[in-house]
Predict the structure.
Amino acid sequence: MNKNILVIGSLAYDYIMNFDDRFADHIMPDKIHVLNVAFTAEKLSKEFGGTAGNIGYNLSLLGEKPYIQATVGKDFSDYKTWLYENNIKLDFIKILKDEYTASAHIITDKDDNQITAFHGGAMFLNNFSIKDLIYKIKPEIAIVAPDSSEGMILHAKELKEARVPCIFDPGQALPQFKKKELIDLITDSKVALFNDYEIELFKKNSELSIDEIKKLTEYLIITKGCEGSSIFYKEKKYKILPAKPLNNSDPTGAGDAYRAGIIYGLVNKLSIDIMGRIASLCAVYTVEKYGTQTHRFTIEEFKKRYKDNFGSFPPSTLSMTGV
């Protein structure tokens, strides 16, 4: 049975490029103040992306039919068709006809370091109240992913007021928030989710320690790329091993795929270990394909690969139906 999952975040076109060298070898630290460099990309692809799109797509592969709340522009038609074909509910995507859909220009070097130039377009105007939306669909869980900072604050507040379990995922938007805003956003959240760089930035900007952060949220999750992830819950730390990728084609979108696995685990009331492993496995599918929504898997394929990485697929998750 599908759950009412609400994914709030960005929808964007991703222009993804690969640089077959290391950024570090072309940037002179003593000349940062006059930085003027160009990196020649060997590959370029235009892909469907954005935090909400990526999370929603992976939830769809896991058999869920999430709602997306986002603002897009006049160039959205191709993306709209793609989402519809992948069983993602479009009822609350607002088209702003005087704007363009957000776009990210991402270049990745051979060490998987990334430089991104981002144009927010319609995304920066996603500051509409979602009270009516919440009342209409009564979501079982919601994620507030990187989006308009003003909208993220408003949407998190309205979800908490409606007592909807909320995942706070600041991601690239983290530097936009002031200390009090960060603390308010994480307080009473169901999950606070960061990568290993973001958690250090959050600690610095909020002036909170890890122990203080853990007290403000039910689950604190920190992802560490190829080293796996850590899930903190009720004074216990769960170390989640990474799944093994078949290749390392492109890390873009792996974090969003991981988040989809966490959401799936929470709404299906799975154990923390199983939830983390499903999230880890979702992430490697993205790493293996160039782009953020170019990978696919059937549920049977997913179960087999879970077994290959972590042992027998748990009977409690056999309700996974796929699309």
